[in-house]
Amino acid sequence: MASTIIQVYIKQILESFFHHHSQVRMIALGVITLILRQGLMHPVQIVPYLISMGTDSDSTIRAKAATYELC
User: Fold this and answer.
1) Which residue stretches of the chain are H helix?
2) Distances (CA, A) of 71 to 6, 33, 37, 44, 68
3) Distance in angstroms between the alpha carbons of the first and the last residue of the chain
4) What's the CA dihedral at 50, 70, 28, 9 to 10 degrees?
5) φ, ψ at 7 (rounded to 5°)
6) Is the overall model pTM greater than 0.70, yes or no?
7) CB of 69 closer than 8 Å to CB of 51
8) Region 48-54: what's the mean pLDDT?
9) CA-CA distance, 15 to 10, in Å (whole number)?
10) Looking at the predicted structure, is the pLDDT value of residue 12 above 90?
11) pLDDT band at 29 (very low <50, low <70, confident <90, very high)
12) What molecular function does GO assign, one term (predicted)?
């Protein structure tokens, strides 16, 4: 059930990675982290977005994305 819901909203969540407010990007990264830790999606679909977050202008977001990439 949860996986089905994620599939419906994943595009909007991933598009939030490019929002101009850093708080929105941080929340989107947190949601993606939870999705991946729970195994609700295959990581291959999300890795390019995590890599892009590694180049974010906000150092906190960069660090959090880099931390998850290492896991």
Assistant:
1) 2-15, 22-37, 47-53, 59-70
2) 21, 11, 10, 14, 5
3) 26
4) 70
5) -60, -30
6) yes
7) yes
8) 89
9) 8
10) yes
11) very high
12) chromatin binding
Any idea of the CA torsion for 30, 36, 37, 40, to the nearest 10 degrees? 120
d(CA 18, CA 21): 9
**Joined tokens for residue 70:** 């290492």
**28-64 burial code (b ≥16 CB/10 A, e <16):** bbebbbebbeeeeeeeeebeebbeebeebeeeebeeb
What does the block give as tokens for 34?
């939870």
Token duo for residue 39: 């195994």
Is pLDDT at 70 greater than 80 in this prediction?
no
* DSSP letter (8 states) at residue 56: -
